[in-house]
Amino acid sequence: GHLINQIAAGEVVERPASVAKELVENSLDAGAQSIVIDIMAGGSKLLRVRDDGCGIPQDELALALSRHATSKITSLEDLEAVASLGFRGEALPSIGSVARLTLTSRTADAETAWSVSADNGRLSEPKPAAHPLGTTIEVEDLFYNTPARRKFLRTERTEFAHIDKWIRRLALARPDVAFTVSHNRRTVLSLPAAHSEEDELQRIGKIVGDSFASQAVFLSREADGIAIRGWLGLPTFNRSQPDLQHWFINGRSIGDKTLSHAARHAYRDVLFHGRYPAYVLYLSMDPASIDANAHPAKHEVRFRDGRRVHGIVSQSLEQVLAGTRP
Ligand code: ADP
Ligand code: MG
């Protein structure tokens, strides 16, 4: 158990940012509408994620911390159509094997919340606790029992920057969920849920910068079962790096060559050579037309029909860009 979890942690938990990503993804999978993330010392001292999601029943708390126990798929067919961000049941046991982890949760029909903790692979008995509907996971002293790994942590600032990048990406993916982030007790990001296109653009401004939001043009098209919406940076808002190119498919952040090529193609006549367009784009399509599990990090997809996706995306962008020409 413990050693296997620590070995698995080598893959799942590279640094505090990986912990933050896994915990926030779990909160999103639990249907949270609001997520509060508190970080101390770049996440190596404390990473705490609190949500108002569905919670974990008392009798499943220990299971949530044991290997390959996922509540998210029960059959092979589920695996085909998996919509949740996690489904391997590896994150919590891995994190619990390389940090002190406390899990406190309450479900809607429970009379009280319950809390369990994992310390050096040992699980405590569940104890009653005070907590509203939802879950708080507290991860303290990351890598305290694996000094060789702890040595690889960078400065507080660098580790925080990695966490921040992931949280922003997850927050961009889910404009309908409120996010609050503090580092060393200072609020560093506060994003209310967006209920309109205007809210959403304002929120995007807080996440990627107002200079993008103040000039971006809205795009919304649907063709052949693929809906694409989002914001395109004007050709004059070009970048020297491809650092403001965000794709999301069905609520999940994606990096994909087909998509970035389609965008580059659409901008080909309006950008100078060597410059990069900026955009935040959301695609929705039938999950059966993509294989999101092609890569374990799940940041990559494989389209069943990449040419069709390429065509629809580049045409949609081209039409909007053509409308912005002076
Ligand atoms: P996975 O996400 O791959 O299922 P994890 O190790 O990340 O595996 O989590 C294990 C299980 O713990 C999840 O399947 C889920 O049932 C439960 N869980 C974890 N975090 C939360 C949360 N914030 N709210 C509700 N349930 C959670
Ligand atoms: Mg998970």
Summarize the structure.
The protein is an alpha+beta fold. It is built from 11 helices and 16 strands.
Question: Could you explain how this protein is built, in words?
Answer:
The protein is an alpha+beta fold and 326 residues long. Strand 4 (113-119) and strand 5 (122-123) form a beta hairpin. It has 11 helices and 16 strands. It has 2 domains: 2-191, Histidine kinase-like ATPase, C-terminal domain (Heat Shock Protein 90); 209-323, Ribosomal Protein S5, domain 2, CATH 3.30.230. Helices cover 33% and strands 25% of the residues. Adenosine-5'-diphosphate binds next to helix 2 and helix 5.
Q: Quickly give the CATH architecture of the largest domain.
A: 2-Layer Sandwich
CA-based gyration radius: 21 Å
Name the overall outline: elongated
CATH domain topology of the largest domain: Heat Shock Protein 90
CATH superfamily membership of the largest domain, which one? Answer: Histidine kinase-like ATPase, C-terminal domain
Keywords: DNA damage, DNA repair
Family: Belongs to the DNA mismatch repair MutL/HexB family.
GO molecular function, one term: ATP-dependent DNA damage sensor activity
GO cellular component, one term: mismatch repair complex
Note the topology.
Blueprint: H1 2-12, H2 16-29, E1 34-40, E2 46-51, H3 61-64, H4 76-80, H5 91-97, E3 100-106, E4 113-119, E5 122-123, E6 127-129, E7 134-140, H6 147-150, H7 156-173, E8 178-183, E9 186-191, H8 197-208, H9 210-213, E10 217-223, E11 226-232, E12 245-249, E13 252-254, H10 257-266, E14 279-284, E15 290-291, E16 302-303, H11 306-323
Parallel strand pairs: 1-8, 12-14
Antiparallel strand pairs: 1-2, 2-7, 3-4, 3-7, 4-5, 4-6, 8-9, 10-11, 11-14, 12-13, 15-16
The structure holds adenosine-5'-diphosphate (ADP) and magnesium ion.
Residues 22, 26-27, 30, 51, 53-56, 64, 70-72, 86-92, 135 line the site of adenosine-5'-diphosphate.
Organism: Woeseia oceani
Domain DNA mismatch repair protein S5: 204-322
Family: Belongs to the DNA mismatch repair MutL/HexB family.
